[in-house]
Amino acid sequence: MIIALFLVLLALCVASLAIGSRPVPPGTVLRVLTDAATHLGHGGSDQRAPALRMSVQDYSAVSDLRGPRTVIALLSGSALGLAGGLIQSLTRNPMAEAGILGLNAGAAFAVALAITVVGVTSPSGFVWCALLGAFIGTVAVWFVGTAGGGVSPERLTLAGVALGAVLAGITSAMRLTNPQRFSALLVWESGDLAQRGWSLVLPALPFLVVGVGLGLLLGPAMNALALGDDLAVAGGVHLTRTRVLMVLAITLLAGSATVMAGPISFVGLMAPHVARWIVGPDQRRLLPLAMAISAGDMLVADVLARLVLWPGEVPTGILAAVIGAPVLIWLVRRAGASAL
């Protein structure tokens, strides 16, 4: 299965690099990738394209335009799938996803505030604002959800929903005051990967790597938590520490994915259900599979976004929801599909 998933993701990456308003043959894509691996950091598209016997436009389309969005789709999809599995286990809610802890709302509010106060107008300027907003939103939800003493999944869920609604309302009010000034925010919130570049990948990548490592290491402890708090404690699991680390991993994963791709819906919600249906509830196997499934889902959505209105495009976030919603409905209608 691992080899099959790897081959599918590789084929989707090649398709993502080849398909667009200017189609590029797969052979040309492979030559560009080979050249990029061989001459990393040596020369730009105008120097390398003649040596590869292809047009500068083809080389630039693959390396400069579709390369970043393919990497963003792959990385953000993987992060959202892992974050979705973690948050469904943390809240014991099979319908939970990253936005339930206030991540998306916190990131969007921080970006809107930066536009209003600082005058940021480009997606590359949103990076640190969105990361800080996602972190502050999660911390606020954590303090509200643990105010009564101890960590309650139910209180965390309610606090996240309440905070998300409040911040989303404030952000909408700010946006209505000056729609033209907030046009960049609308593009970012729609999940339009065509507007992304390497300037969004590099700052978020360290946070994503740490989040992935931490999330995968928590698999055994999450299996113990699924048996109930008493049995988990008897098995040597420190409840508060484990849940704090889960919240930290979710913040890093969903925050970095939101920075790169915008607030994408249904990807992190659907992928853990598909993985659970295939390999069962063991988090050690479920989480890596959810990462691969959500990465493939994002790549498929991004490719279809270029074909629906070709030669124009629709935002990838819209296609991700269109694909994810029917699949999720089908899964939850299966007997036991939504059980954690």
UniProtKB/TrEMBL annotation:
One of its GO terms (molecular function) is transmembrane transporter activity. Coiled coil: none annotated. It is a multi-pass membrane protein. The chain crosses the membrane at residues 70-87, 99-119, 125-144, 156-177, 197-219, 314-332. Keywords: Cell membrane, Membrane, Transmembrane, Transmembrane helix, Transport. GO terms for biological process: siderophore-iron import into cell. It comes from the Bacteria. GO terms for cellular component: plasma membrane. Its main location: membrane. It is found in: Cell membrane. InterPro entries: ABC_BtuC-like, ABC_transptr_permease_BtuC. Belongs to the binding-protein-dependent transport system permease family. FecCD subfamily. This is Fe(3+)-siderophore ABC transporter permease. It comes from Brachybacterium endophyticum.
